C-alpha cells in the first residue's frame, strides 16, 4: 500500500465515525481511578445524607410519640414557610410524612448539587487542566472518562437512595400495616433527583469550557428548578410539575406512593446523558460549545487597581447573583398576595410559635431572610477569592508591584461588602415593591428594603470569617468558609425543626438579626455583629501581612 | 509498498477555532524509523497539529494519516502504538508520580516494570512523591518515563524537554537515539535548535499554520547562505559586486559576508586573489534557517523599537 493510498483512504472531508466499542475503551480503569481519587468525598456524601435522615427520624420519633402530636405537627406545618422551603407532605400527620417534610428536600437537593460538583470535578475540571489529554493519548475511548465518572456518581445516587430506604425501613417510617412501600418510594425519589443532578452536571460539563462555569451552570439550573417548585408549592401546584425536583416531591412516599414520576426522572436523566455523549462525540477536546472570542488588546487604567481588577474578574458572579436576586425578589413578591386567602384559612387556632409565626408578616420576614441567605452566598464566593487568588499564584505578580498586602486585601473586600449591601437593598425593595403593587401599599418597598438590609451585618460576619480563615488557616480557608456558610444556611432554614441546641442556633449570625417586619427593630445585635465582623476582618488582614504568601 | 513508509502523513490540514484560522493547509510527513523535527514560533499551530494527530481535535479539512489510520475515528486502536509527551504536564495532585506512570502505561497495554525502573533511574525521578510536590521539570519527567517505558512505534513529543536541566536533556537525547536505533519514529516539536539539530533526520518549519520549509537538514542548508569571516590583506575591491554575496561588512581588514551556496566556488577564488590570512566558513545552523523564515517578523520588531 502506498502512502498516498493511505492518505486518500482517510479523507477528513467525509467525517469518519468512531466505533461504539472503541469510544468506551478503558472505562474500567477510569472507574478505579475515579473511585481512588474520590473515596473520601464519596464516603462523606453518603454518611452525611443518610446520617441526616437517620438523625431526623430518631429525633422525631422522640418528639412525636402519639398520633395527636403528629396531627398537631401537620397542622402547624401547613404554613407558606414550610411549603416554600421544604415542601409539605400530604401525609404530614404520619411519622413517615413528618420525617419526609423535614428531611427529604435537603437530602435530595443536597445529593443533586453534590453530584453536579462531583461530575465537574471528574470531568470538565480534569479536561481544563490537561489531565484528560494525557489519558486520551493512551488507549482511552472518547467517552470512557465521562462514562466512568457517571457510573461512579450514579452508584453514589443509588447507594444513598438504598441507604435512605434502609434507614426508613429500620426506623419504621411506614404507617402500620402498609409494608415498606413508602420507604422504597422515598429511596427511589432520592435516587431519581440525584440522577437528574447527574444528567445536569454531565451536560453542563460539555457546554461550559471551564470547571467554574460548569458548576455555576449546573447549580444555577438546579436552584432555578428549586425556586420553580417553591412557587408551585405556594400556588396551585402546577409549577411544581414543571420542576424535576417537584417530580421527586410528587412521588409522595407514605401518601400516594407514586412510582411513575421516578420513571420520568430516569428518562430525563438518560436523555441528558445522551445529549452529553452526543456533544462530546462532536466537539474538540478542551473546548466547550462556544469558541473563545478575541478580546481587546489593551486594559483600561482601572484594572491596575486591585478593586478595578477584582470587579473585572468577578464580573460573571456579580452579574449572575444580581440577576438571581432580582428574579427571586420579583417571583417572591408576586406570589404573596395570591396566598393571602390561603393564609387566612390556615391562620386558625394552630399554634404560631413553632415555625416562627404565621400570616403575611411572617411570610415577608421569611422571604427577606431568603434574600439575605442568597446574598450571603455571593459575599462568601467573593471573599474566598482572596485565598483562591493566592493559591492560584495570581496575587504574587500583583504584590511584586508597588502594592501593599493591606491595600490589596481591603480593596478586594470592598466588592463583597458593598456588593452585598446593594443586593440586599435592591432585593428587598423589589420584593416590597412587587408585593406593594398588588396590595396598593407603596410603602412596602422601603419597609422590605430595610428588612433585607438588616441582614447586612450578618453577611459581614461571614465575610469576616472568610478573611480570618484566609489569614490564619489559608490551606483550609476555602472549604471551611463554605462549610460555615452551609451550616448557617442549614441552621437558619431548618435548625429549629431539627432540634439543634439553642446555643448553637443563637450563635449563627443570621439568628441574631431581628426578624423584620414580623419582629420589632433592634439595633444592639446589629451593632454587635458589625463589631465582630470588623474584628474578624482586622485580625485576618493583620495576619496576612505577617505570614508567607502560600501558593497551593 | 513504496520504499519509505510514513508514520505520519498530513496534507493540506485545516483547523478553525471560531473566527481563528489556526491551520491553513499544513503539510507534515514523519518517515518511519526517523526523527522529524517540528519547528515554529509560539502560536504557529504545532500543538494544534499534534492534538489533531491524537484525535483530540477534529480536522476541518485536508488529509491526515497516523500509522496508516484515521487519528479521529481509530483513535483508541492507534493509541496502543503511540506515546505522547505534552509540553505542560498536569497530574493528579494527590497521586504519586509512580501511580500516574502506571495508570498511563496500563491504559496502553501491560506495564513492563523493568523498563519503567530503567527510565526512572535514567531520569532520576522519585516515584513515591505526591504529584503536587513535583516541580515542573519533575512533572515533565513523569510523562517522559511513561512514554519511554512503552514500546510505541511512534512518539509524539510536544516540547518534551521544557523545564528539564541540561543533564536530563542529555538523558533525553540518549533515549531518543535508542528509540531511533530500534527503528521507531519520532515527531519532535521543539524550540531548542541544538536538540533538533542533534536528533532530527528531517525538519519541518511552519508559520501561521502553513508549512514554509521541509526536508533533511542538509537539504535545507542548500537553501541558505554560508557565513564567511576572513582577514584580507588585499582589500575588498569587487567583492560586494559578485553575485551571491550579501551583507558585506568591513572593519579594518576583518571582512564578514554571507554567500549563497551556488556562488561559493566563484566567491572563494575571488577571495583567494585578495590574499586572505585567515578564513572561517560556517554552514548555516538550524537557528539561522529558522530566523531566515521569520526574518520579516524580526525586521518588524526592529522597526517597532526604532520608533
Q: Provide the β-strand percentage band of chain B.
A: 25-35%
Whole-number total of structural domains of chain A? 2
The major β-sheet of chain A equals: none
Strands of chain A, count: 0
In this structure, how is the largest beta sheet of chain B organized? 6 strands, mixed
Mean pLDDT of chain A: 87
How far is the N terminus from the C terminus of chain A?
53 Å
Quaternary state reads: heterodimer
Overall geometry of chain A comes to globular
Low-confidence stretches of chain A: 1-14, 345-356
pLDDT < 50 runs, ≥5 residues of chain B: none
Largest interface: A-B, 47 and 55 residues
Kindly report the CATH topology of the largest domain in chain B.
Rossmann fold
Write down how many β-strands of chain B occur, each being a DSSP E stretch of 2 or more residues. Answer: 13
Label this structure with key terms:
heterodimer; A: 552 residues; mainly alpha; 74% helix; B: 307 residues; alpha/beta; 2 domains; six-stranded mixed beta sheet; four-stranded antiparallel beta sheet; elongated
What does the model show?
Chain A folds into two domains: 22-285, no CATH class; 301-552, no CATH class. Chain A starts with a helix and ends in a 6-residue tail after the last helix. Chain A is mainly α and 552 residues long. Helices cover 74% and strands 0% of the residues of chain A. Residues 1-14 and 345-356 of chain A have low confidence and may be disordered. Chain A has 25 helices and no strands. Chain A has helices at residues 3-9, 20-23, 27-63, 67-77, 80-85, 95-121, 124-129, 131-136, 144-170, 181-207, 211-234, 244-249, 260-282, 306-313, 315-336, 340-346, 359-391, 395-400, 405-439, 443-453, 456-472, 474-498, 502-506, 509-512, 523-546. In chain A, helix 9 (144-170) runs antiparallel to helix 10 and helix 15 (315-336) runs antiparallel to helix 17 (359-391). Chain B is of the alpha/beta class. Chain B folds into two domains: 6-220, P-loop containing nucleotide triphosphate hydrolases (Rossmann fold), CATH 3.40.50.300; 225-283, Alpha-Beta Plaits (2-Layer Sandwich), CATH 3.30.70.120. Chain B has eleven helices and 13 strands. Chain B has helices spanning 46-53, 75-79, 97-107, 113-122, 136-148, 166-181, 193-199, 217-222, 264-273, 286-293, 295-306, and strands spanning 6-17, 20-31, 35-39, 61-66, 82-85, 154-158, 185-189, 202-207, 210-216, 225-232, 245-251, 254-260, 276-282. Chain B has a six-stranded mixed beta sheet with strand order 5-6-7-3-8-9, sandwiched between helices. In chain B, helix 6 links the parallel strand 6 and strand 7 (185-189). In chain B, helix 4 packs antiparallel against helix 5.
